[in-house]
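Researcher: Next entry in the queue.
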Amino acid sequence: MNRVLGYVLSPSVWIGDRPINRDGAIESKDIADVAFSTLVAGIQIEVSQDGVFTFDFEDSPIAPPLVAGDPNAFPDISGAILNMVRRLTIVNAHLACLYTAFSLQPNITPSPYPYPNHKSVIAPADLLSFEMTSGEAGAEHLNPLPWFIRRIILTETDAQYFRNVVGLGGIRGQMEARTRIAIPLSILEDSFVRLGQLLVRPEAKLDTLTELYLRGCKACEEHNYSLSIIFLWTVIENLINRHWEAWTDKNGQPKKTKRGMHFPASHKIKTLADAGVFTQPLFAALSTVLDARNEWLHSMNEPPIDVVWVALHVAESLLDAEGVEVRVTVIASVQW
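Model: Structure for this entry, 336 residues:
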């Protein structure tokens, strides 16, 4: 059950070439069901020409689909939710990979009627989610939701059915079709290569850290700086701890205090900086972000935006050290 997860971007996009016929018009019959496909960690991924992304987890060992009628698959609904959240994390991590691949491509002409820049479309305006609803018998279950704008859609069938349910085959007008940004296939391929790199070591949970980084970017866009700093510090401290574990193992140093307590983050980053693991500029940046995070947690003092930018760059730098390059464009604007 619930084999396929998928999403569409809003505003809508074309994948690859625009399906323009000899008369200069765009018709539904000219749109390819599958413009791009690949296999990542056992996940069969297909993207239609009109921008429907589908992820089929049937053969994936990382987060296999729920098994109907198997009482041993998950003992309760919480287990099923955790399974779905795991797959949702992977799809959200791909959003970060897609934003990164797009933002690193120079000189892209989006469309004959270009937006001010690609950031107006390819940016963390939203993340994917799912909702719990009540079943016919009153039992809670994960229900298919026909949301069109970057909301997760759960189906029990295949990717083709998913595309039919979403119903994007019908063009909503020639002007809408012509003004869509077209994402080159090279960007799509780059994004899935990046996703594969995140999933090479499932135990490292690099996809989870990437999703948290993306959530920090989204919160920053929404000017929710306290939430952004919490998401970003979660990423940062996890990666600090990895450096700490590696350094203490290599040098035979105690990982915890004599009382068996974890050393505070301030002690770890100071020790790692003195040992040359962290540069002095990185140490200064980490200290700045840690102070802002503590000010929020202990005194409810909102972190300033410049510190949030520092946190974004620090998270990116530490993820780089893990072989994960993420560069999500953040648009900090206000509309009313």
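Model: The two ends are 43 Å apart (CA to CA).
Researcher: Noted, moving on.
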